[in-house]
Amino acid sequence: MKKIIYTVLTLAVSQSAFAEDKPQDLGIMNVVGVSPLGGSIDADKLPTPVQMVSSEQLDKAQTISLAEYINRYLGSAHVNEAQNNPLQPDIYYRGFVASPMMGLPQGLSTYVNGVRFNEPFGDTVNWDLIPQGAIDSMAMYSSNPVYGLNSLGGAIAIKTKTGFSSPKHQLETYGGSFGRHSEELTSGWNNGTWGYFVDINHFQEDGWRDFSPTKADRAFGTLSWRGDKGSLDLTLGANDNSMYGNGATPIQLLAQDRKAIFTHSDRTITRMFFSELSGSYDVTDKIEVSGNTYFRQNKMKTFNGDNSDYAACGDGSGFLCGDETPVIDTNGNAVAFSDSVSNATQNSSATQMRGKGGTLQTAFTGDLFKHGNNLTIGASYDNAETHFASDTELASLTASRGTVGSGIYIDESKVRLNATTESVGVFLTDTFSITEKLAATVAGRYNHISVDMKDQYINDSENNLNGQHSFERLNPSAGLTYQLLKNVNVYGNYAESARAPTPMELSCADPQAPCKLPNSFVSDPVLQQVVAKTWEGGFRGNLNEIVNGKWDWNLGYFHAINNNDIIFHRAGNIASQGYFSNVGQTQRYGIEAGTSINKENVFSAIDDWHFSTNYTYLNAQYLNGFNIQNPLNVDEIIAVHKGDKIPNIPAHIFKAALSVDLWKKASLGVNGMYSGQQFFRGDEANTAAPLAGYWVFNGTAEYKFTKNFVLFGKVNNIFDTNYSTFGVYGQASDVLGADYNDGRFVSPSAPRAGWIGVRLSI
User: Fold this and answer.
1) Is 2-303+343-761 CATH 3.40.390.10?
2) For residue 27, what pLDDT is reported?
3) What angle do CA 732, 262, 299 make, to 5 degrees?
4) How far is residue 3 from each of residues 381, 422, 424, 571, 677, measured CA to CA in Å?
5) CA 657 to CA 61: how far, in whole Å?
6) How many CA atoms lie within 13 Å of 409's alpha carbon, on the beta-carbon side?
7) Regarding beta strands 154-160 and 108-112, do their DSSP bridges make them parallel or antiparallel, or are they unpaired?
8) Which part of the chain is CATH 2.40.170.20?
9) Is this model's pTM higher than 0.85 or not?
């Protein structure tokens, strides 16, 4: 079946072409996609909310990544900066996360030009891979089964630029605080039949915290052909990024020096190659066949210097012990205790992931029983091979809390795992206009996922990572929209989505043998797939006539229950050591409201004003009880009860942005955000005080000397607010001394900072 599906997809794409690009202002457009490959439908007929962003909006916001834009401007979204690196944020939407960090329950799917970008080993999302200048548009959807695995809370669909959507040449460069500078060259051109687009970006900074430099080199480009009935796009991308994110630090240490880090280094290297051929063909005016085929490779390396809980054995044997058991090295020998192995480890991993596959879909637009109808059916196939290796080297700490390796590697932490993940999906979505005002949408997707794991380092034939796992499910959705008034639309929807346990989770699920992420995997019990069931409804509309401009608004309610939810249980003295398990049901529900106003000539003929605001109340809680390790006493087990809040998710999120354009040349803007208090990771029982909420404000400015020459600048954290976006529990006293006994670690915010740059275009 694999060979048949892949051959059909390849042939279909090679003989078809992609629909013609139509540059649009996503700020006013009312057409959205219906599947990862696109398609189109009137947004007022979609029974769920969707938030859209254009390349023009990204440029004006002066954000360094799409993730930063989402955090500042989109409703029901917030960021946890657990890694404290600008290119490695955790993006949350309605309490569901898309993160580069292993161990988080990934609940958002991401797509680039219809290709799923969640990594196959842990469903993680590496936000550093695509330069912002290559993005043409982005749409963020709420739960929709058509978007496949991990769409529990929603999906993020990114479309990159082509020579037809962005036919210009531009050079942008800026620099400022933290030694940060960026240079980005984009070039697009077309002659009506052929076109190209290329983006080359270099980003570098020293980082505002100690030992925290980052460098990112990225290239992305598309060669396009357009015909009378279709087109083809060949997209290539690559990157070579090195990012240091030294993460959370004891609050007592930060009180002395906010730039300080606990231990170092924590380095991630990503090297991706991406290739895709996409296209569609208009069979008739009402039938369009489209598809893509891709090959993607990502080589990731991590290095983490950390403290350890190893100590001299208490029996006087002179060996090194963990839990009073002698540590065995990779040569099968007990490790002798010495200062060089006494208090630290160097954890390293290398993950090579190769994926290929494609999607084929057909869209039918026309009347059914004399009523308007929009039907899309399709199928997808994805195959990924992962080669994972990890090692833990015993080490000692330096005076600056760096590490020096001993050359001795721990046997139980050595992992050599090959995993093959194969995924087949068949989907359908249909919107039927019952009347001119009432529309019904039904959708569904059948997923079949198989995971084949082969242990390449086996010391125990009965205790290894070998295993074959398969998961399948049909996820449906159905909804209605009704045009209540000329400018008021009401919607309601029910949807089910699922995510299968990843190879990383499946190999780290035994409470009797906890793992240290992302290392030390062991043979484990089978996990169940997570199923989210979401109800949502609300109102949306406009008050354009009142302002004689554009005034959009929305008010909605959502309620999602995850069944067989998977969480990471801490087990041991180190926060990253533990195991995964299903914990029953979790719930996320809330209210979201937003408005945006664009009004020209408010006070005079020279000023145009833009205002937007979003508010979300979000209640994320456990519906079943289970036991966890007490985050303040690792030797004690405590109970999580029904109603306890899920950590790292604030109950209140408020955002507002105000800007003014003067003479169509100058632009001034300010944006602010409030994020409410949240419980620390590891405190699922809510036994300790939560992390405090915070306000933060940022400013932007821009002046167009000519249409080809723009000067711009920005200031982040205008009031130099001292706040933290993430909290976790750990032990600092073994490294810093007995006085550092608080147990709370936080990821601090960056101080006030500014940058200035120029943008040249022709």
Assistant:
1) no
2) 37
3) 125
4) 10, 12, 12, 43, 51
5) 10
6) 13
7) parallel
8) 2-303+343-761
9) yes
Residues contacting residue 311 through CB under 8 Å, at least 6 positions apart: 320, 321, 337, 342
Average of per-residue pLDDT across 745-753 = 94
Residue 157 CA to residue 50 CA, distance in Å, equals 11
Q: What does the alpha-carbon distance between residue 263 and residue 253 come to, in Å, rounded to a whole number?
A: 12
Mean residue pLDDT across the chain: 90
Burial label for 314, CB within 10 Å (0-12, 13-18, 19+), is exposed
- Alpha carbon distance 432, 558 (integer Å): 23
pLDDT of residue 525: 54
Give the whole-angstrom CA distance, residue 449 versus residue 447. Answer: 6
Q: Does residue 603 come out as left (phi exceeding 0), alpha (psi in the -120 to 50 range) or beta?
A: alpha
- Write down the residue that tokens 């669909």 correspond to: 157
Determine the Cα–Cα distance for residues 8 and 618; give it in Å rounded to an integer. 44
Do the bridges between strand 287-307 and strand 230-244 make them parallel or antiparallel, or are there none, so unpaired?
unpaired
Contact 101, 91 (CB under 8 A): no
Task: Give the closest residue to 596 by CA, choosing from 615, 608, 612.
Answer: 612
pLDDT band (50, 70, 90) for residue 532 = very high
Q: Which of 673, 549, 537 is nearest to 602 (CA)?
A: 549
Query: Backbone phi, then psi, for 61, in 5-degree steps?
Result: -75, -20
- Give 54-96 pLDDT, tens digit per residue: 999 999 999 999 999 999 999 999 999 888 899 999 999 999 9
> Phi and psi dihedrals of 736, rounded to 5?
-100, -15
Which of 130, 47, 758 lies closest to 434, judged by CA?
A: 47
- pLDDT for 632 equals 82
Which secondary structure element, helix H or strand E, spans residue 716, and what is its range?
Answer: strand 709-716
How does pLDDT run across 494-531, given as a tens digit for each residue? 999 999 888 777 766 556 555 544 444 443 456 889 99
259: alpha, beta or left? (left if phi > 0; alpha if psi -120 to 50) = alpha
Q: In 259-409, which ranges are E strands?
A: 266-282, 287-307, 311-312, 320-322, 325-326, 344-368, 371-397, 403-409
Burial label for 3, CB within 10 Å (0-12, 13-18, 19+), is exposed
The pLDDT confidence band at residue 102, using thresholds 50, 70 and 90, is confident
Please give the structure tokens belonging to residue 658: 């105000």
**CA atoms within 13 A of residue 147's CA, in its CB half-sphere:** 30
Position 276, amino acid: E
Please state, in angstroms and rounded to a whole number, the distance separating the CA atoms of residues 306 and 195: 50
Task: Give the Cα separation of 173 and 196 in Å (integer).
Answer: 22
Other residues' Cβ atoms within 10 Å of the Cβ of residue 371: 12
DSSP 65: S
497: burial class by Cβ within 10 Å (0-12, 13-18, 19+)?
buried
Taking the CB of residue 313, how many other CB atoms lie within 10 A of it? 18
Q: Assess contact for 518 and 304: CB atoms under 8 A.
A: no
Location of structure tokens 């002698």: 326
Residue 475 carries which side chain, given as an amino acid letter?
N
Span 564-622, pLDDT tens digits: 998 887 766 665 667 788 889 999 999 999 999 999 999 999 999 999 999 999 999 99
Q: In whole angstroms, give the CA distance from residue 243 to residue 250.
A: 22
Q: How far apart are CA 125 and CA 122, in angstroms?
A: 9
In the chain the first and final C-alpha atoms are separated, in Å, by 50
